[in-house]
């Protein structure tokens, strides 16, 4: 990563699609921030997923606070470098925790599974909207796309007062 040249094994992962260009870009950004923010040295970066103007960074168990630390400066630096809104998600958590991280700072009122006649399922998420249109915090369409890419989860998002 530091040299900018990938080893043959990493090149194979890139060609096979196991690792994407977005993953490499975010990994390089995190690596460049390590000197300024030493806690990043202990963060396990799993993957990065883009949808519209939103970037989801998926990190290891317990690493979310390390990325959110320093008063949000790491997230702000990632956002400025990529030109996207950044969401930090934890790898290997249950669906509820994944959805809570995805839709933070809004709180989830309920999560239901909807079984459709064709045998597929959708996950219905009802969020508690903050006063005066809580939907403006994030792009719901982009977050639904991230849930589909990361967890293969089809979301139906609703807001309640």
How would you characterize this protein structure?
The chain has 161 residues and is α/β, with parallel strands linked by helices. The protein folds into 2 domains: 1-91, 2-Layer Sandwich (GMP Synthetase, Chain A, domain 3), CATH 3.30.300; 93-161, GMP Synthetase, Chain A, domain 3. The chain is 36% helix and 26% strand. It is built from 6 helices and 6 strands. The protein has helices at 8-16, 21-33, 64-68, 73-82, 95-103, 140-151; strands at 45-51, 54-59, 85-90, 107-115, 121-128, 155-160. A 3-stranded mixed sheet has the order 1-2-3, with helices on both faces. Helix 6 links the parallel strand 5 (121-128) and strand 6 (155-160). It is globular.
Please sum up the structure shown.
By secondary structure, the chain is α/β, with parallel strands linked by helices. It is built from six helices and six strands. It has two domains: 1-91, GMP Synthetase, Chain A, domain 3 (2-Layer Sandwich), CATH 3.30.300; 93-161, 2-Layer Sandwich (GMP Synthetase, Chain A, domain 3).
């Amino acid at each position: 990563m530091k040299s900018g040249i990938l080893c043959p094994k990493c090149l194979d992962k890139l060609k096979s699609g196991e690792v994407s260009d977005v993953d490499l870009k975010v990994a390089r950004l995190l690596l460049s921030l390590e000197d300024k923010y030493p806690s990043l040295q202990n963060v396990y970066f799993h993957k990065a997923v883009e949808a519209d103007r939103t970037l989801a960074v998926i990190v290891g168990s317990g690493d979310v606070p390390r990325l959110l630390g320093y008063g949000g400066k790491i997230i702000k630096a990632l956002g400025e470098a990529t030109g996207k809104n950044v969401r930090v998600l934890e790898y290997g958590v249950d669906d509820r925790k994944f959805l809570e991280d995805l839709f933070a700072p809004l709180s989830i009122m309920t999560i239901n599974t909807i079984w459709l006649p064709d045998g597929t399922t959708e996950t219905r998420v009802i969020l508690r909207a903050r006063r005066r249109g809580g939907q403006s915090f994030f792009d719901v369409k982009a977050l639904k796309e991230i849930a589909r890419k990361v967890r293969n989860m089809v979301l139906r998002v609703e807001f309640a007062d």
